[in-house]
Design goal:
Structural class: mainly beta
Strand order of the largest sheet: 1-2-10-7-12-5
Number of strands: 13
Distance between the termini: 30 Å
Radius of gyration: 16 Å
CATH superfamily: Jelly Rolls
CATH topology: Jelly Rolls
Strand content: 35-45%
Number of domains: 1
Order of helices and strands: EEEEHEEEEEEEEEH
Shape: globular
Largest sheet: 6 strands, antiparallel
CATH class: Mainly Beta
Amino acid sequence: MEIQETRIPGLFILEDDNFSDSRGSFRRKYCVKDLKELLKERNIVQVNQSDNILAGTIRGLHYQIEESKEIKIVSCVQGSALDIAVDLRKGSKTFLQYESLLITAENHRSFFIPEGFAHGFQTLEDHTSLIYFTTQFYCPVNESGINYLEPSVGIKWNLPASVLSLKDQQIPLLNVNFKGI
């Protein structure tokens, strides 16, 4: 697995080794030995799959607080998506900056998103599925979010939003006093 740090410290692009032959291909999506340094003392405890019907669907931008802060490793297993990570770390030099990554079923890339980041994505084609490896169990009382149109972040989405949950639609814009997590 190739590991590349992005311009935002702590945020990484993972690229799988792909082995192909006459049967098809094989790749390892997760290996604790490859990611031990990045995970530190954390373990993957949950794997989630998000199946999305329409291109333009936006999920997020979500994050967990308190003891539920989590590392996420996000991959696309069908279709394609623009994956987004927003730095919310209090005191970070890249606070409220974001990085986007095109993840597809064909490019074998994953986003390694550390604690202290909001995460979201937009599907770029119909019938897109993503998997998330997480280091914490989902905890609804510790979930928070940033509006996908937050002007202080200024995300450039590839498509108009076609589908957005009511919960995500109701996320307010950030208060000027927001200093991070």
